[in-house]
Amino acid sequence: MNGKILIVEDEFIIAEDLRKILEKAGYEISGIAPSVPKALEIIKLKRPAWVFVDIQLTGKLTGLDLAASLNELEIPFIYVSANSNQSVLELAKATKPYGFMVKPFREKDVLVALDIAIYRHENNLEAKLIKEVALQSEVLQVIENSSDWQSKMSAIMAAFHRHIPFDYFAVCWEDENHGKNEMAFLKDDGGSFEFLSVEDLAVRVGKTEQELYAAKAGGVFPEAAIYFGGNDFEQMLNQNPFRKIIAREFELGSVLMQPVELPKKRKFLCSFYNRDSHAFKQEHVAWLERLQLLLIQVGDKLLSYHTNAPVAEVQHVSDTVYEVLVPEIETSLKSEEFGLVGSSDAFDNIKEQLSVVAPFDISVLILGESGTGKERVAQAIHRLSDRKAKPLVKVNCAAIPDALMESELFGHEKGAFTSAINRRIGKFEEAIGGTIFLDEIGELPLDLQVKLLCVLQEKEIVRVGGNQIIKTDVRVIAATNRNLEKEVAEGRFRLDLYYRLNVFPLTLPPLRKRKEDIAELSAHFLKTLSKKMGKNVTSMTDQVGYALQAYEWPGNIRELENIIERGILLTSGSVLTRVDLPEKTLQEAAANASDTPIKTFKEMEKDYIFSVLKKCGGRIGGPGGAAEMLDLAPTTLISKMNKLGIVKKFTT
């Protein structure tokens, strides 16, 4: 590890003990501080690479207060505390530490905590870069597609908004006569971005275009990325009449600005505004700095659209370091072959995260209720990775007796115990070169958690009863339906193992939170299960469809699959007419169903969306709009309307 370590601890004996442990292991210490002010002084003089910080310190400020400053400075830290109860863990977790040590600690505890923290920090940096690369790829695809430039820019704004918070985006550039031009996009209630020209702005603020251009004339481009909030924002507005007009009109409270220089020495300024006066931090400045080349491409394209001039030659972003780091993904997640069926916002977000992390050897922790599809997601991650040609080995930690778990995971030698009549290869050894999926990891006994942690750290195993060290090259995906943070607080799960696994968490939504996917999932199960059972059930009645939508699905997707499988088994024709659900749900469905002819799920969905649109007078976004009533994003609803052939034209 490069750099020194700062110890922030007001108990002299503990601080000295920690210093001796770290120095003995070869680490350099930049200083010991008993309070937050003293720590900040040392940080200013000698920026450390890591900080060990006690939560309770001398003075008014605590370690939690220091954590906020460390996050601003992007300095990773590990907490040291005498208290590990649930409330302390919750407060500590909110500050995003890289580790948590409980006093009193042993030498091994300190070194293991630091080793895991360094591992997580390195992988989190990689994860940030992965997301930035995904953003770059998405934006470049938008730039090259055939839609009009306003639609392109709206799509680019939506992509940026997933990484940086803003309510209003403006671009300003100088023309050949050094005059300033402005273009802006305002986020609407539905989360989409509406283009605002200078003409539109003039109408909104009640001024002429000439008055706006005059107000803009005195504006100055900053030399580097900068943000303003609170009083600083107000002072900046007082020096810039145009920005003040915009801020007052749209009730904006802060701004993050990034200047870029385009080819031919053209100046271009991106301004991200937020209504919250404390929305932006130094990390957002760093994010924009890293995406300079992408902003150059966006700016150059935008100006070419605006002026109808040919696009100047610029360095393509893929010529940078990103090309080296991002492996090509050949398989599309849109395919049902991975079992990832659904197009709701909640599930699309999971698929996006999955596709980002899949190509990299980062540990993934899949969280969610039973039956939400954790194993299917693990399979998709494996099949989208470079390890897809090697095995995916599954281990259900809840199904293996504690006494056999070590042998199951790491194998055993002949004669290791009474019934060991042959050598056994363990699951980790089977998975070498591939992926191991540790399902229900929360059920793993504490003594096995220690051994698993050692395997993950050292990347090697020893079979039970043996002494041969076997190197492992295995990617770990773990899953659980338990709240591991609660398990840690109650002493049933090791904090160091939790930190090791929780590098890239994926929380799967329950089916009741993505009911818009029930139609698609049901159609998928009808098709696959009918084929499996040698039947030809191709549709279902309105009553069945209403019942499936009305039910809350405590067993999630697994329960839906089982219900449809039983229904198919008991169906003699081609139409599913009955499902085994609570009687109340079926009665409600019967009350809603009509005597209309049997329709497919697609036809039912189309009719339902149309009826809601008609009820809303054709209004899609905003309060009282169809998207709000259907609990969908306006963009998702529009996409569904296009797929179903619904034309936005209504008569009352």
What is the β-strand count?
20
Compute the CA-based radius of gyration: 29 Å
In which range does the helix fraction lie? 40-55%
| Widest β-sheet, arrangement of strands | 8-7-6-11-10-9
Runs with pLDDT <50, length 5+? 308-335, 648-652
On the 0-100 scale, what is the average pLDDT? 82
Query: What class, by secondary structure content?
Result: alpha/beta
Most strands sheet: 6 strands, antiparallel
N-to-C span: 70 Å
The share of residues in extended strands comes to 5-15%
What does this protein structure show overall?
The protein is of the alpha/beta class. Helices cover 46% and strands 15% of the residues. A 6-stranded antiparallel beta sheet has the order 8-7-6-11-10-9, with helices on both faces. Helix 4 links the parallel strand 4 (77-81) and strand 5. Helix 5 packs parallel to helix 12, helix 9 (230-238) crosses helix 10 and helix 22 (542-550) packs across helix 24 (583-592). The longest helix is centred in the first third of the chain and has 38 residues, at 107-144. It is flat. 34% of the residues are buried. The model is unreliable at 308-335 and 648-652 (pLDDT under 50).
Put the structure in a nutshell.
With 652 residues, the chain is of the alpha/beta class. It contains 27 helices and 20 strands.
